[in-house]
Specification:
single chain, 140 residues, alpha/beta, 2,3-Dihydroxybiphenyl 1,2-Dioxygenase, domain 1, 4-stranded mixed sheet, 33% strand
């Protein structure tokens, strides 16, 4: 499937398994953060929407206005972080490299430096401007 040209209805019908849609204030800024810190790729990037790919997996970014008729929109705070309690784990990203990039990125906060954990992973926690926790991890 060509993610740059697929129609919205064909894209929707192609989705299987579990899906992840992330509501963000600024789709372009979030996509740039994900590309620069975690080597993801944005497709169909616009002010309202992006298809993101990470090691063959797909998820979507949506701007708040695209959820005008969705009941989730009323639950979002107008200011401050949104992602409390959600972790997006990136098992194919070097946490040391991601932390280095995050420190250099103006919209990133390293919440926890790379650490070897007892569950067999080295990981760190990076918050984006929307307050979501991105957790790059590698097996020890």
């Amino acid at each position: 499937m060509d993610l740059e040209t697929i129609s919205a209805d064909d894209f929707g019908r192609s989705l299987t398994g579990i899906g992840l849609n992330i509501l963000v204030r600024d789709v372009r800024a979030e996509a740039a953060f994900l590309e620069q810190v975690f080597d993801m790729t944005a497709h169909r990037l616009s002010k309202d929407f992006a298809i993101m790919t990470y090691h063959g997996q797909i998820f979507q970014l949506h701007a708040d206005p695209t959820y005008g008729a969705n009941p989730l929109l009323s639950l979002l705070p107008e200011a401050g972080p949104r992602g409390a309690g959600a972790e997006f784990r990136l098992y194919e990203t070097d946490p040391d490299e991601a932390a280095r990039r995050a420190v250099a990125h103006p919209d990133a906060t390293v919440l926890q430096a790379p650490t070897d954990k007892p569950h067999g992973l080295r990981e760190c926690y990076v918050l984006c401007a929307n307050g979501y926790a991105w957790v790059p991890s590698r097996r020890l």
